[in-house]
Amino acid sequence: MTECKIGSVVLRSPALLAPMAGVSDRVYRELCMDMGAGYCVSEMVSSKALSFHSKKSEELMEISSRERPCGIQIFGDEPSCMADAARHAMENHPDIIDINMGCPAPKISGNGSGSALMRHPQLCGEIVRAVVAVSDVPVTVKIRKGWDDESVNAVEIAKICEHAGASAITIHGRTRMQFYHPPVDYEIIRQVRHSVSIPVIANGDIDSAQKAKEVMERTDCDMVMIGRASMGNPWLFMQIKSYLEHPGQPLSYPTLEEKLGVMVAHVAKMVEYKGEYIAMKQARKLVIGYFKGMRGAAALRNEAGRLSSMDDLYKLKSRVLRG
Length: 323
Ligand SMILES: Cc1cc2nc3c(=O)[nH]c(=O)nc-3n(C[C@H](O)[C@H](O)[C@H](O)COP(=O)(O)O)c2cc1C
Description:
Layout: E1 4-6, E2 9-11, E3 15-17, H1 26-34, E4 40-41, E5 45-46, H2 47-51, H3 55-60, E6 70-75, H4 79-90, E7 96-101, H5 106-109, H6 121-134, E8 139-146, H7 154-163, E9 168-175, H8 186-193, E10 200-203, H9 209-219, E11 223-226, H10 236-245, H11 256-274, H12 276-291, H13 297-304, H14 310-322
Parallel strand pairs: 3-11, 4-6, 5-6, 6-7, 7-8, 8-9, 9-10, 10-11
Antiparallel strand pairs: 1-2
Helix pairs in contact: 4-6, 6-7, 7-8, 9-10, 11-12, 11-14, 12-13
Bound molecules: flavin mononucleotide.
């Protein structure tokens, strides 16, 4: 396997954890890094909120030693505000600063940030240039295929970002208008890969070691980024690494006990950091992920959706183990 690098930052594996607001907090990132992810990124942080010294945004940027290398992702639509945010982020010593040009959520793109930036190619270049000028770590950009099917411009944006000093591009092969559902266009990812000379990271619907390898071969990308499929299945990162290094060897899967043990430890850590009320609300969708594919998953999903304490979770775990 070739060495994976972004600028001067060496990554331990080509399987990277995607930023996911409300999911990939510090506990989640530590878990995925323990399970073999090559790199992780913070949840997106608002450059505007940082300019008001929002405590919540400051907390989103905290990085522990167990999750290195780790990037901080910022979003916004004003070059000078984004540069200030990058300066601010540097105080937490990230390994990389990542710029969000892909978020489709109306409350982000409706304000001209995230994926809406792709409608203004010149502004994309100005933002990257401004952030690169103040960052002493590599700056990367996460984009989509384009805004909609009539304005597919990922190749143009990738070239502009490279020219402005970006060290890598991650591309999610859907337009903003497609949000998360229609099939991913891996051909556009391949085109972006062949239009720039910085590393390109393929993203979208990678949910198995075999799929990761297939996407890497199809797009010629050296790295893949995994979001939703890691929820409840952080073992995916070590499976991908192992499959890429030794495709002939059988993959290792966790036992039910291991799976539920990691699930409980994961949620307990969240409770430690955030308190039970907030943690349990956020943990519901993660717990559902751990139950995916199990016998009686629909009923378990229902119960997981109502969890409100660690005690509920312990009881649920015991019931699942009893079968
Ligand atoms: C709950 C959720 C939150 C997300 N938050 C972010 C974010 O903060 N920044 C970002 O660039 N992308 C964000 N994304 C997009 C993912 O990083 C990724 O591009 C997308 O989920 C496609 O990859 P996947 O099919 O592996 O999940 C989010 C996705 C989800 C599902």
